Predict the 3D structure of the following.
Amino acid sequence: ATLTIMKVNSSVILLAALLYAVVARHADAVTISNPFEGKSGANLPTVLVLGGGVGGLAAAQELSERGFQVKVIEALGQLGGKARSFGATGTGTQGRADLPAEHGFRIFAGEYGSTHDIMKRIPFTKYGRKSVDDNFIEGTEALFASDKGGPTFVIPSSFPKNKEQWKNFLQYFRSISGYLSKAEAMEFVTRMIIIQTSCVDRRYAEFEKVSWWDYMHTNDFSTNYADIVKLISGNILAGKPLSPSPSP
């Protein structure tokens, strides 16, 4: 199996996507058997993947492993999509290259099982590592600084499991309480404990269609409280506080 990366004009990708959308919209829903079952190598067709972002590259990897000839079409001169790194225009001085920049922070949480599974199957032999997945560095906490003169928040990445983590966990809530009233701090702690201790079934049954904003009862409290809610949903969850998501 081979994997080929091609660069094309973005209008070609848009046209292909629109064509697919039209066909999919008007096609009758039918159940078909797998026409490629039992075939391999030269007997398999070439698959065209539109877009070299994480999703497109993951699909290409899976197909290539199964013996398909795969071609990835990407409009940009760089793979990675929104997860790519790029030079921040104008930041390079005195002949130096532009400083590296990101579209946003990139976190691959433990529950991203499929992503980690694919990366574990892609070899990476530099620095004594075996796969792409070995390039991940576990993060235990995140630091956020308020742009309004509020306190600095050190936010743990998981529920505490030992004495030191409990210490950091409690310090996090102490720093929050210095920014909020007693009632707001109590509400914040209560809502966080509920979501941290809820099982997956409860999250889907009760919180699936509830926005983070509503779950935290944001409209009942001050703008400081709202700032904390926005910080969590935007900076940590990379989501919009007013939009429902699988879990608040």
In short: The first strand starts at residue 3 and ends at 7.
